[in-house]
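Re-running the complex after MR caught last week's input typo. The corrected sequence lines follow. Everything else is unchanged.
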Amino acid sequence: MVLFRFTLLALLFLLLACSSEERSGDKKFNWQEISGRDEGNGDISREAIYRAKVPEKWMRQDPDVMESIFDTKKANSEFIIKDPDGDVRVVVHNFPSVTIQDRIPPVAQVSRWKRQFSILDPVSLREDPYAHGGFAGIYFEASGVIEGKRQAYIGFAMQLDNEHYQVLSQQRNNSENTLTRQKCADYTIKASGLPDSIEKYRREIQAFARSFELIEEIPVRQ
Amino acid sequence: MSYIRRFYHFLGGVIFAVILITLVAAFVVAGTFIESWTDSHRYAALFTYRHPVFIGMLWLFFVNIFLSTTRRWPFRMRHIPFLITHLGLLMILAGAIVKSSYGTQGSMGILEGSGKGEIFLEDSYVVHVEDYQKQHSHSFSIKKDIWGRFNPDLSDSHSSFPNLNILLAEYLPNTVEKYEYWIKGDKICIEGLPPFPVYEANSNEEKPLPVSFQGSWQGPSGPDWNIMAIRGESVEDLLKRAFIQDTELRISRSDTEELLIQLPLKEALRKAVEFGAGDCSFQLELSYSPVKGIEGASLRAGMSGEEILIPLNGEGSLINYWVSRPYLGTPPFVIDLVRMPTLLFIEDDQGENYLFSISKYGEIEGQDFRVDRPKTLIVYDGGHGGYGFQTELDLSIAIAGRKERRAAGLYNFSRQFREVAEASPSLAQPLEVFRRACEKQGEDFVEMLTSLLQEWDKRRSWLYPKRISLPDELMRVFDSLDWNEMSSEDTRSFYWISRLFEEISPAVESKRDLAEFLKERQWPLIEHLLEQRKISGPVHVEEYPEFLVLLAQQVVDMSQFLPSPEADEELTPSLKARYFTAFLRSIGFQFEGKHNDITEVLREYSIAKLFKVKVDDQLGKHSGLSNKKRADMVASLSESSSAFQEIRKLYAGLLAFSGEELKDLTPKAIAREYLKKAPVENLSLNKREQKILEASLLPLPNILECSITRQHIEMPFKNKIEDNIPKVSLVLSKEAKKQLLTLAYDPYGTGLKWPALNGEYLFRFQPRFLEIPYHVRLRDTRQLNYASSMQAFSYESDIIITDKRNGKSVEATLSMNNVYETWDGYRFYMANITPPNEVAAQRAQIIVNHDPGKYWLTYPGGCILSLGIVLLFWLRPYRKRVLNFESFE
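Corrected-run output:
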């Protein structure tokens, strides 16, 4: 009987000791805001529209605040991951559009990346559908030779969901503003570096891209 | 009285308890079977846990336990465990009853990136109505009576819309709603054009596909188009047939543009074409997928080991690429396609609409229009005028064929190179020497370089041929070019690179493995060169440019150890051009002729072409003069001369096309612009050609528009209720106006509201919504699959939950086994993700549950019940009775 009581008490203790709470991991990142582009009309001010969780050790290099980045060839923001085996460069570009038809399909962005390789290792090539934060597009991975050097890319070519685009466009029609145009923009994130370095930081890059989103929530159609 | 007592004891007795337990068990068993049979939790819930009989049984359980307790009256000390246990049971049952009566259970359907602060209640059906001013809105419930019959009159219990009567004419449990865009039944409807017939695709491939309309849809000045509307199973087959049936193939010499043969594409695909240079076979690659579109559409021509690729879509479309010798420029013969421009509408067996535009040069653009979500949406009068859809066709490039694109590519190169050259204080030594030679001859450096590229491209040679003479102005430039102007080290490396590339030239032109060739010739640094490649195997054609850059770099690195150039060699202008092109090869230069923003480049090229032709008309006939010389002539004109006045007028006119502004309109300024803009090639356009070119710069309508209508297809009822989309047909009336409106259920209540009664009201058939004190933003949702499998083992959603009452936010991740619960008992858990993969932004269905009695009844009841059970075992109040019984025995 003593054994039975002891067992009962032990089971009760075990029950109370169980917890479904997850251990909180090491938080070695911080939320950072990334701005859109200026409109190229002389006013070079640009507002922060994106945010992402950036690992603390990444070095950020934003374009000069006095410089216009209306030209979409210029990056919205750039991060360098310093590594003794070779740095990794992560660049964020956005591509604002006037109408939904003006947008560059993610497939075209990926084709452009592929063409940057003079020799592309077909085994390393990966193109998967990818969606988060209201954007959908393509996850791209490849390695090969660029300008005579071994290089690898991890890229994300993203486009705002059509339903979101319509809702935001509706807002833009009501009160024309550049912020909404920027929010409707496609964006790309591309990490480039030596294949070994890219492999080393793959998870960090993927986590960064997964966390990349518009700061403001996109309104829903009522 | 004894009957009452017997009934009281029955209600509180063990027999009644056993009956109830049996019935509940039967319900639960039935629920389990129903759920496994229908694969529907909701179906099982409706017939078991949410069934009124089941809820009634909970009440009876409550009565049974309560009365069984009161039967022990008066209570003794030994009853304490028993009482505690029964109190716990009563509290749990009370909690369940409170939850079923006052609790909340609903769902949120949130698209990634957005958020919601309200839930919709499952199995609730309302017709939501809004008036024109959007001042009033109301949700009319569709209710069933206890026999399951619908109450047909929805409008009898409201005051917001006193004159509006809504009667339920029909209810169908499952339907599919499809949006109709271009093709509506047997007609194709485009705004501004009469409806045309849609034809069924015939299976006989020999029979041509019918044309629905022939004429201009771009206004009176627009060109004629064929519009075809076909319904068939395979989009790809129909596209191929429509493309082939009208297309003619033209083969010309690339240097003189002399037409060698013209024949239908159909014939060329069937058998090899003989046109003097040998048998040439053709292959058309034309496939379509909703994800990749028509990427990769191309025509391939193959002849004795040589291959030409003509992309039919994308950046480099219509340009003839010499695939087997990509480094040799334009192939010896070029292929053009000609046909009637066509708009091809296709409806597949799923009702999806596709639109392809095929230009008169055979370039194809394609779009698909999904039946469930329109890509673009035009909202007429806030939805009260209905909805429309439009698509923009990229037709600005449709007017340009292969020749114009190649020329535009060269023009674009010269423009970009000029920017680089003007921005760079110094260029590579050979380029600097070339620049100085141009200056000596009074020629423009960029123009001469572009001109050389054009000549070189025509020669189909790895390096510029030794014995082919150059055009006069280039001849003069190279004649005055002196390599000795470079430093001795640069001269040595340049000379030896040129000699080396000269040596390699036959190997390159015969497509040999360069690694093998260099080994044969005992290149001393071959091993190091192969190491630098970092890949093994033969050096093939596609690797030539990279490989030769590495080889040239080796020469530069060892230039100080190389002997000086041989002085006895006679350097003719052609030989100097050959060495100069060797230098261009050594830096990896290869002119491909394709450009990213083809629309913009072609437009700028057309403007520049028109400008050059018109200025040349004013300057008079001076054939053979370079642009620099012509620009000098413009600069020397007197500002008051009639020729300059005319040039200034037409330049100002062209500025309007390009949207540029030039304040300085002096002869010198316009001469500078002329030099910057004028294409290198000699142009001669008659008045008619000039007018056509001018007209091409004026924008023609390129937008097609249609109204969106809906089609409802009745479907069999599915056992899994969640998968059914009910449909209602409503008879709406207000005063003299009457209308029948059919609406499909919008399960998330986020779709379009449809107008009725002349657009006075908007209607949507949706679930009932309920505001909750939390706002949930969905950041990301994903399906986690087993390794190397598409089978999901979990779903996850990253959310931000904000308490509307105090604005505090928390981040949380929901998954199949991870529920988030707020301090006041709102529980959020994952239910579903659509689509399951990440081909589009995903929508997560999050279930929200709130049980108001949980903390007061259910959880304390559970604790009390556990305590009671422990005490029952611990104190064993029945032991004494058993012992007494034993002693009685």
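None of the earlier attempt is carried over here. Chain A touches chain B through 45 residues (CB under 8 Å). The longest strand of chain A covers residues 135-146.
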